[in-house]
Write a structure and sequence with these properties.
The protein is α/β, with parallel strands linked by helices and 328 residues long. The protein contains 17 helices and seven strands. It has helices at 5-14, 21-32, 37-42, 86-91, 93-105, 121-125, 129-142, 155-161, 164-167, 175-184, 188-195, 214-219, 223-231, 254-257, 259-276, 286-298, 308-318; strands at residues 78-82, 108-111, 149-152, 185-187, 208-211, 280-283, 304-306.
Amino acid sequence: MRDFGVARLLLKTKLPHEISPQFEFGLALLEGSGVGIAKGRDERGKTGRMPVDRPKATPADRKTSAGDPGDAGAPMGAPVLLFKGCVTDGLFQRVNEATTRVLEVNSCTVQAPFGQVCCGALHAHAGDLEGARALARQNLEAFEDADTKIITNAGGCGAMLVSYGHLLAEEKAYADRAKEFSARVQDIGQHLRSAGFRNGASIGFERTTYDASCHLLHGQHAADASLQMLWAIPDLNFALLKDSDMCCGGAGVYNLMEPELSEEVLTAKLECIKQSGAEVLATGNAGCHMQIAAGARLSGMKLRVCHPVELLDESYRRAGYYGTSDGF
C-alpha cells in the first residue's frame, strides 16, 4: 500500500483554509515541481519537470455580465450559489468567470458565498475522512440558504459535494442538513439543461472533442449535460472521442501515488485524442484538465484543453451577448 503521508501533509497545510491568492501560489509551485506524471518519468531518467499549464490572466474588459449595454436584454432572475473550488479558483479562475457570465446571460443572479472552503475530495482520496468531514461542515454553514441551487464546474468537487449526505450520515447535528445540501448541488451543465439556455454563435472550425470526467459520468451522472453545452454552439466541428468514458489517469491523488500506472492510462487517452484529430478538448474537471494538458505537452501534441463552459462563453461573446462580438 502506498504511503499517503506526504499527500495528507500538503492537504492539511493548504486546503482546509479559505481559498486565497497564497493557495494559488502554492498550487503553482506544486504543479511545477514535477509531482505526478513527471515524477514517474524522472525515476526512469526520461524527462524533467512537468510543464505548468497555467492560464493567462483574464483581461479586465472580459469581466462583463448580462446586464451590460448591448447585451441580449436578459433580465436578472433566479439566484444561484457558485462553488468556486480550490484548484479551479487558484489555477483556472477563467472557468469561474466564464461560468458566471454564462449563468447571468441565462437569467441567473450569481453569488459566491464567503466562507466556502475546499470540498474535501482530495482529503477523502488520501484517506483523511475526518478532514473531509470538517470541511463539509464548514461548507454547510457557508451555503446555508436552503432554497438556492449550488453550481459547480469541477466534476471532482461536484461528486464530493453530492456525497456530503453520505459523508455526514452518522452525525445527528448535520445528517439532515448534509442530505439537503447534496440535493441542491448541480454541475453547470445540469443546471443549464434543466433551466434552459441560449444558443450562441459560431466560434470557428477547429476540430473539437469532449472527454467525460469520471466524476461527472459516475458521481453526478452529468456527462451528457456538459456535452449539451457544446451543442449550443452553431457549426461546431465536433468529433466523438473513442473511450471517452475511460479515466485519464488523474483520479484525484492517484497520479501522485501511482504515477507509472497513471501514465499508462493517460497514454491510452492521448492516443484516442490523436485518433480523433481534435485540436481542442473540452473536459469538465480541473484535475482532468491538468492531467491531459500536461500529458499532451510532454508528448509534443498541439492541443488546447478547456472547460465546455469556456467554449459556450466564447460563443456567447461572438453572439454579442456581452456587448461585443469580437473574439478572444
